[in-house]
Every structure is written in C-alpha cells, then in structure tokens.
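Predict the holo structure. Ligand: fe (ii) ion.
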Amino acid sequence: MNGQYPAPTCLSKNEERHDATIFPRGTSIDDVYFHITNILGLNVQHVEQFESRIKIHARKNSLSSIYGLGQQPFHTDFATEVRPAKYVALVRTKPVKACTTFIDLEPIFQTAQSSNALFACTVPVESRIRTIRLPSDRPLRINSVVYRPVNRAAEYATQLLPSAPIAFTAHWEQTLAVMFNNHRYAHARGPIEHGSPIERWRIH
Ligand SMILES: [Fe+2]
C-alpha cells in the first residue's frame, strides 16, 4: 500500500463524494481499506466472509435460500436491523463471471405515489424491525424475503423496483470491490457460480 493503486471510480452524483465507489482489479484489499478509512474517513466495523450457495445449503431467510445461485432481486443489506450499516463494501478477490446492479431508491419512493407504503416483516422472532413505512421510515430498506407488502402503495413500490433505472453495475471480472450507500442504493446480484467467495464489510 503506497498510494499508487489504481484510482477508484467515484460514482456519486450528489454532494456525498463517497456515496458509491468502484475499485478496479489491480487494487489490493489493503488499498481498498486504506481508501475507505484514511481517504474517506469512514470506519470498517465488521467483515463477513461467505460463499454463494445453492438453496438447501443457504442460511434461513436469506436471499440465497430462495434464489440459490440464480438472479437475486433488489434489496438493501441488513434490512431488519435497527441501524443497518450506512455503507457496505462488497469485495471479490477472485474474478467471477457475475455482476451486481445498483438502483437509486430515492426517486422511486419520492415520485411513485408510494407514500405510506407499509411492509411487514415475515420473520418477527428473528428481526428487530417489524414494520417499515416508506418513504417516511429511514433509512430506506428493501428485502422481499423478509418484508411483504401489506397495502397497495407497498405493492406498487415493489412492482417498480425491477424496472428502475440502473445507477451503476459492478462487473466482477474487472471489479475488486464496490463501496456504496446502503441507505440509498438497492442492489441485485446476477446468476453466479457455486462457491464464489465474497467479503461484505459493514461501514459506518
Ligand atoms: Fe446484498
């Protein structure tokens, strides 16, 4: 780590310059950590390592338990937590033929007549946030596995997600890591090979 790593691409269109950043391959994990902590001044609080799994081997109530290695729907991470991490970094040290697409949630919930969209958690015992009312509840949270729409506004908002304009895409053959604002962007992973390793960093 010497400051000579490839320049990460900042994708933010607003005043928060670190809203979304892609780190190309050629960067090292130390460089990603250095950039997040020393350049952006954020704190990496926890790092999880896991692998893409088929349905029967996936964690209960996870997206993989429903979708396995196939395409996953748009979601935000840690959606049932009281304080889901504001920033998340996804790191894939091994190149893989898969991509993750990101959409900006704000326009959907501000302009789609979806105010007072009410969602109820389907796993109340394990979660700490039982209902979410969008767009008033902050941060915005999306996860169709653990939250079901309970009114028409919520159904409408859910229907809009797949057709939302894509903000940016991480192609994991060329990308080492993506750091993004998890309170603003929802992400969806495309189909992937079994056993592809990934790290997920919680950042505040
Ligand atoms: Fe995710």
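The chain has a mean pLDDT of 88. The CA atoms of residues 33 and 61 lie 30 Å apart.
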